[in-house]
User: Fold this.
Amino acid sequence: MIEETLAEAKEKMDASVESAKENFSSVRTGRANPSLFAKVMVEYYGTPTPLQQLASFQNPEARTLLIQPFDKSAMKDIEKALRDSDLGANPSNDGNVIRVVLPELTEERRKEYVKLVKGMAEDAKVAVRNNRRKAKEAIDKFVKDGDVGEDEGARGEKELDSITKSHVENIDELLSRKEAELLEV
Assistant:
C-alpha cells in the first residue's frame, strides 16, 4: 500500500519536474531556438493551433530563425501570432519564409526573465509539495485505519520526504542552470 502511494507520488513529482523543464525551455536566452515558439498559438482557420504544427524551423544564425509554413496561406496568421507574442520578435515575410531576428537582450530584460523563471520554479515546487501532502495524507489514513503499523507509516513518510527533497533539489538545479544561461552575455 505505502509502496504504491510512494510510487504514484514519485511519478507525479517527476511530471512536475518535466513540466518545469518544458516551461524553462520556452523562456528565451540570447540564442534563437525553435522551442521558444512552443507556446505560440496561431489562429488557423478559426482554430488556435500551435505554431510548431504549422511550420518547419531553421536556425541559420545565433539570433535568427527561419520559419517555413507548410501552408503558404497561413503566413499572415503566423506573422500576426509572432508579432503578438511576448518574445519581442519582429518577423519579416519574403513570400516563402518568415525570418525572425530576435533582438539582443538588455540587462533589464534578462533580469525580468530570471524573475519569470524563478516564478515557474516556485510553481513546480508547489506542485511537488502538493503531491507530497496528498501522499502523506494517504499514508496517515493507512495508519489510522490500521492497514499498516505506525513504524511502517513513519518509514514511508521518511522515504516520501527524501523523494520530495530530491525533486525540489532537481528543480533548484534546473533553475540555477537556466539563470546562468539567461545572465550569460
